[in-house]
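=== Discrete structure encoding ===
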Amino acid sequence: MNRSLRYLFTCITLFAILATGANLLQAQERPDNLDSLDQILATSGYNGTMIIVNPESGQWLQGAYQNPDETLPPLDIDSAAIPASTFKIFSSLVALQESVVASAETIIPWDGVERSRPEINQDLTLADAFRYSAVPHYQGMVKTVGESRMQHWLDLAEYGNQNLDGGLTTFWLEGDLRITPRQQLTLLQSLNNLSLPFDTNVQQTVKNIMVNREESGVIIRGKTGLAVIGNGMNTGWWVGWTDNGSQIWYFATLLQASQNTMAETPEAQANFITARQAVTDKALRHLEILPPLSQ
């Protein structure tokens, strides 16, 4: 082997060793991240699981916490739960695809029933109905879509367990539809890549209405979900993704609490509602996906 070839071979070998070392270091760091996610989830005080993924880099982080006083079973990223209002992501896609609404600015009429949230007691655009998580407006859209068309899209997109039982306007709130955190991430990644079985413009519209906020150049898209089903089981979701222009991280957080664990007071309900996003934000900041909070 001449000197030039020997030098080239040495460089390639050294590069391979360094690359392997970096991968090993990354693999060794993951358990620390996992422990940190467990600890962050524990700060909520509720049963919970969280998954944070960067498909491009292959980084896959997950954590779980089980409240020792909780009677509900522990959660993991394959635990199936009712989607609650995270289903608005999917029902928006279906309503747009089926021309129930034409765009994000289409007006969805109010049904005239006064409810405790004044912001939803009015006609709303699709974008505002999504932002306010206006259940009655979405129930009206899903009713217009109808059972057969909704079942078609659930099956085609393989959404959760694809089960419509429980009533056309309540199957995602208190019926039998279920989805796992892992399945939520699959849906989100496909939506962001515009690869779901819906028209491209439909998917782009839903991506646009999902924008929650921007922090230091990082765009956060997402949707919350909240439901109380069965014997007082509280289920809370926060799912979405961050995009800083060069890296995309997908996240799904699922919390659950029984009424036995959570006192039936407005304060306890408020704590559960805020905990979904709070623990996720803590994790994203810990991993430096979101910027640190200003002191």
The first strand starts at residue 47 and ends at 54. The radius of gyration is 22 Å.
